[in-house]
Amino acid sequence: MKRRHLLQNFAALAGAGALPALADNSRIVLGQSAPFSGPARGLGEQFKDGAMLLFDQVNQRGGVNGRRIELQSLDDGYEPERCAANTKRLIEQGVNALFGYVGTPTTLAAVPLLTAAKLPLIAPFTGAEALRTPFNRYLFHIRASYNDEAAEIVKQIVSVGVKRVAVFFQNDSYGQAGLAAVTAALKQHQLAPVSQGTVERNSEDVAAALNAMMAAQPECIVQIAAYKSCAAFIRGARKMGFLGNFYNVSFVGAQALAAELGKDARGVIVSQVVPFPFSGLTPVAGEYIQRSKAANKDLSYTGMEGYIAAKTMVEGLRRAGNNLTGDNIVSGLEALTELNLGGFYINFSSLRHTGSRYVDMTILTEDGKVRR
């Protein structure tokens, strides 16, 4: 009876064009939903490229506990509904874990599904507090939170005597998370945003936000949106004569924003949550640079984050053993206390699933470079 039902389910999935990735002893299958099309595709592509540099090397050396790692990546276009559908499909296909989702609204749409399936998601590319509080046993964060990034940004702003701060944010859960983080950080210095403006996800229509925000005469602007929206706003503000600084959190993708802006990138400040990836200042950066050059891949902060996420994933899998249930992978990751990945530290436990609070500040140049 069980065999007949299994064959029936297999046939149904085959008819729908979604053959199951049945677990076996020769491979470990990770599932990813991320933008590989649309305005945010650069983030998904760079994160995956960075991760594959590490996974490919591990596979060349025999895999993890003798099993090769496969990353099945599905495109969600940075849209929550598509991400939820992708997650359902990946769960039905029998992936061992989820990895490297990109974005707050998309990841939030996946959480109820993966939690019900008791399937861990490792290294979502988002710092939203809504994914960290309340604690979820099946979510593991590599990066610092937007609260951490906002605190560092505001610290830099107030250190130069600036008080009139405006916030431009995406009209969704990502933007709201960033706005809340910036507002809380400003409150610590007895300040509040002088004006706010929004943009819809995957949109460059920023005219209304520009008019509303410039009327308040801000001295600087903090942006919480995807890179194309931020670039459109920066270009528009400069045309209106705004001379103040722009600050962005890491999700914007420093290289993607610099490429989109061209010469207008000069002076734009971006907080970062992984080490500088353009020189071997840390051992992990040296590894990433060497493997990127060998694979003919461009260097980027997002690629570096994907590489670090993959290193963390591999270490968790090694400790999980050969029986890769969701709970065993969770236990393997929770065993990563004070893990040194080469100058970047991950510290998980059974009560702490945020591995790092590292934040650094960088500035973009008009020739497309990122400087510390």
Give the key terms.
single chain; 372 residues; alpha/beta; Rossmann fold; 2 domains; seven-stranded mixed sheet; five-stranded parallel sheet; 14 strands; globular
From the spread of the alpha carbons, the general shape counts as: globular
Low-confidence stretches: 1-21
Q: Please tell me the total number of domains.
A: 2
Indicate the structural class. Answer: alpha/beta
Rg estimate, integer Å: 21 Å
Describe what you observe in this structure.
Helix content is 43%, strand content 16%. The chain folds into two domains: 2-144 and 282-358, Response regulator (Rossmann fold, 3-Layer(aba) Sandwich), CATH 3.40.50.2300; 146-272, Response regulator (Rossmann fold), CATH 3.40.50.2300. Helix 11 crosses helix 12. Residues 1-21 have low confidence and may be disordered. It is built from twelve helices and 14 strands. The chain has helices spanning 2-15, 41-60, 80-93, 104-116, 146-159, 173-187, 207-214, 227-239, 254-261, 283-294, 301-320, 326-334, and strands spanning 27-34, 68-75, 97-99, 121-122, 139-140, 165-170, 195-199, 220-224, 245-248, 269-272, 339-340, 345-346, 360-364, 370-371.
Topology summary:
Layout: H1 2-15, E1 27-34, H2 41-60, E2 68-75, H3 80-93, E3 97-99, H4 104-116, E4 121-122, E5 139-140, H5 146-159, E6 165-170, H6 173-187, E7 195-199, H7 207-214, E8 220-224, H8 227-239, E9 245-248, H9 254-261, E10 269-272, H10 283-294, H11 301-320, H12 326-334, E11 339-340, E12 345-346, E13 360-364, E14 370-371
Parallel strand pairs: 1-2, 1-3, 3-4, 4-5, 6-7, 6-8, 8-9, 9-10
Antiparallel strand pairs: 10-13, 11-12, 13-14
